[in-house]
């Protein structure tokens, strides 16, 4: 069931007009966040943007952070850090680094 919920939220089916209504953001703001690589809609064969419910949630989070004065470049850095932290290889390298620092190991290759 969890996996179905995930795919449901990530399916790109919502038009930019509906996203604007749901988020309270203007079309211009949504396009700007796309230009800044904070959001990545799919494009139809005619070039129409399509968004997912996950995109809507991300846009709401971005809007809240912008209201708090956070710059878009800082939001992007934070998003990239979160993506890296969720990567299993990243976690493994961080743990190896911590062990190496604690026990003064050197990785010999």
From TrEMBL:
Residues that span the membrane, as ranges: none
Keyword Repressor: yes
Keywords per UniProt: DNA-binding, Repressor, Transcription, Transcription regulation
PROSITE patterns per record: HTH_MERR_1, HTH_MERR_2
Domain HTH merR-type: 13-81
Coiled-coil features, chain-numbered ranges: none
Listed SUPFAM superfamilies: Putative DNA-binding domain
SMART domains attached to this UniProt entry: HTH_MERR
InterPro entries listed in its UniProt record: DNA-bd_dom_put_sf (IPR009061), MerR-type_HTH_dom (IPR000551), MerR_fam (IPR047057)
GO molecular function annotation: DNA binding; DNA-binding transcription factor activity
PANTHER family in UniProt: HTH-TYPE TRANSCRIPTIONAL REGULATOR TNRA, REDOX-CYCLING DRUG-SENSING TRANSCRIPTIONAL ACTIVATOR SOXR
This protein's name: MerR family transcriptional regulator
Species whose genome carries this gene: Metabacillus indicus (Bacillus indicus)
